[in-house]
Amino acid sequence: MRIFASLSLGVLVLASVSLLSQTPAAPKTPLTTAQVLPPMGWNSWNYFAEKVDDKDIRDSADQLVATGMKDAGYVYVNIDDTWEGERDANGVLHTNAKFPDMKALADYVHSKGLKIGIYSSPGPKTCAGYAGSLGHEEQDAKMYADWGIDYLKYDLCSFIPDVMEKQAPNDKVAQMKLMVAAYETMHKALKATGRPIVYSFCQYGWDAVWEWAPATGGNLWRTTGDIQPKWDRIYAIVSQQEGLESYAGPGHWNDPDMLEVGNGKLTLAENRTHFSLWAMLAAPLLAGNDLPNMKPEIKAILTNSDVIAIDQDQLGKQGARIYSDGEVEVWTRHLSGGALAIAVVNAGSDRYATHPFHLNLRKLGLTGRQAGKDLWTGKTIELTENMPLELPSHDLLLVRVDAPTRPGVLLAPLPKTITGAAQ
Ligand code: GAL
Hints:
- The model is unreliable at 1-27 and 411-423 (pLDDT under 50).
- The chain has helices spanning 17-20, 45-48, 54-66, 69-72, 102-111, 137-147, 159-167, 172-193, 209-212, 231-239, 268-280, 296-302, 305-311, and strands spanning 40-43, 76-78, 84-87, 93-95, 115-120, 151-155, 198-202, 220-222, 253-255, 285-287, 320-325, 328-334, 340-346, 357-358, 370-374, 380-383, 388-389, 396-401.
- The chain has 13 helices and 18 strands.
- The chain is of the alpha/beta class.
- Helix 7 crosses helix 8 (172-193) and helix 11 (268-280) runs parallel beside helix 12.
- Beta-D-galactopyranose is lined by residues 2, 8, 10, 45, 80-81, 126-128, 155, 157, 202, 226.
């Protein structure tokens, strides 16, 4: 069924108007408040794939509310591939039998205070071989708007062999122009509807999409091929985000793909680290797990409000890997109000225990003791220069420091202890 699978190597928080003025590279279309921060929600693909139907979407919407995920910020309920039926003589695309009434489904999702997303391709077929939007962009966009759709994921798929390679064989530059034009066509069609619809590009990070997606109306763009619920794949994707920090900002985000938290055989540490790193990356947080059967420990990860606050920080500045020492990596993310998030990740399968990792605060531009909050224990923590840290395999320490001390910044005097004055 997934005829193009091989190509797939692949809160709504009401933001203040002042936030818009911080946009580093203003996207073409004015942003609605819903589009400013990295989108949060749930998408059907990672768990249901081609089996998804109307009932699964309704159940997932119900669960977003019942589990508190909606209150934590997960508002988009996104239907991925395989909802499409056939076009009629007027070119109108109908749903298939799994989705008897899309308008009614959208109304149901909206009645829960949630938003609804859908999926298509600029090619004649989607990645799973269903009808794409080629030649019907305006008609499809209008239909989405009539249904009340709030989000579109647009997946390149068959556009590669059927348009790019056919129209411009062996000419990569011309192929890229065709691709950019296809994303622009749908952007114009969505804009013409007058409905705010988050526009998500899915073309696996080809042709440095981060350089042209914001100007082509993209609110987010996939930076890599598909994620899988496996540590090695998640870590490979994380490594591919290096250098992309400067392209993200309010209203336009790098998308390292949807979350696999709670899927496959990921350990709790791996789920925690995956989620934390997506927050450090200012990534869209689209859960992709089986919500009706979500275990409490997975819900605890997905609804950790401190970690979500890192992801949704209003400064919109993506974090970066600052240094690594063997298999331990240190990431930071600058947050609004001068705060800093620090993630120390043990990416290795294990570490030689008699030679622990020592934290180098100077490399992070910090001096002296840093008082912070460990976002996974909820406890206060003090980070000190050269402190040894032992982390289990694939686990992390995630700390928020609200008032980091940097060279040149006066250190507050240490409190006197019972045994005498601090040195
Ligand atoms: C892939 C895409 C996946 C999913 C799938 C559906 O190309 O990367 O996220 O949408 O197609 O067929």
